Amino acid sequence: MTKMVPQTEEIAPAPGAAKQAKEQATDSNPLHLLTRNLRTSGIYIAFVAIVVLFAILTDGVSLSPRNVTNIVLQYSYILVLAIGMVIVIIAGHIDLSVGSVVALCGAVSAVLVIQQGYPTWVGIVAALAVGMAVGAWHGFWVAYVGIPAFIVTLAGMLLFRGLTLQVLDNISLSPFPREYSRIATGFLNGLIGGDGYDAFTLLIGGIAVAGYAVSSWRSRMAQLRYEQPVESLPLFIAKIVAVAAVVMAFAWQLAHSRGLPIVLIILAVLVIVYGLVTKRTIFGRQVYAIGGNLSAAMLSGVKVRKVNFWIFVNMGFLAGVAGVIYSSRMNGAQPSAGEMFELDAIAAAFIGGAAVTGGVGTVVGAMVGGLIMAVMSNGMQLMGVEQPIQSVVKGLVLLLAVAFDVYNKRRAGASR
């Protein structure tokens, strides 16, 4: 009699298990982790490389305390615009009017403060209110009427440039009172002493480094709790040390010049606030959802029109802030103020990693992109490079940044 031997039944793998296992194996691959980290951190590596390059080409003049301070003062308003622009681009839109809005806000502030003698705070509030009103105008046409942002803001660029000429009666107004001009040219120094340097600036730099380290550690712990891949601990520590070295070197240069610029404090507050808004709030997640997949965002209950409206109101507000800073820096208002600012802000966002198709980008990335443009412009000026050549270089850098984004998307699509 034949003895029956029970056969073991083969269990079919669960749907998606093979794919999940493949992704886990890929994530644990050191080469893949290194490639991914280089892709996400490439903008920071490029920034450091550009700083070092121009330091060599200018015999160290670009890193002198005075020049580092001048970079902060000269390009702060572009960085403010880049914060708003990256949010607009993440949502899949564009704003071509911000340069004209900067000019209009500065013009309104100048008329009130210089011509009519109102206090400084009245001019600042009026500039911010005008910026938000312009943003609401754009938001209405984009969100509720359905006209593409490119057309609406192109019309706005012409419209608000014309209003600027009307407000100023086609003449320049100057000077502002000292308290107004201190917004973009004032410094905090001597608060806690220092022998040949400003200790307060170094203290603020140390606090910034500590805050970044704590925030990065908490983010890493959260990723580990959710079993998400993270870089190795030595690489994580090396990144913190590198950031700390750059920040403290920057603070050291400022401390040996004129101290901590007031405009840098304004910019730091905006970066922190908008970094939290984009990453930790419902509004921020909805902006990414709209830019990433509009249909899915609508099906998931996102009020797309409302979000788009407030995106442009926010852009107008930041254009008002930039208008105050720029008019303070120039100590007056001019009809031609803000020309080409929109292109610098857009370039900063794209160089900083924002995707052309929307859904991708960060505030910090836009800041780094703006600093790359600032360092290049400043370095070429120190080298005596002619303006046409500077424009060619900036255009090529922007083109390469967008090409790199397109290449990464194709590469990611091919690996799926």
UniProtKB/TrEMBL annotation:
CDD domains reported for this sequence: TM_PBP1_transp_AraH_like
GO-annotated cellular components: plasma membrane
Transmembrane segments: 41-60, 72-90, 147-168, 188-213, 233-252, 259-277, 307-326, 347-376
Topology of the protein relative to the lipid bilayer: Multi-pass membrane protein
An MF annotation (GO) of this entry: transmembrane transporter activity
Protein origin, superkingdom: Bacteria
Cited PANTHER family: ABC TRANSPORTER PERMEASE PROTEIN YPHD-RELATED-RELATED, XYLOSE TRANSPORT SYSTEM PERMEASE PROTEIN XYLH
Function: Part of the binding-protein-dependent transport system for D-xylose. Probably responsible for the translocation of the substrate across the membrane.
Name of the protein this chain belongs to: Xylose transport system permease protein XylH
Organism: Blastococcus colisei
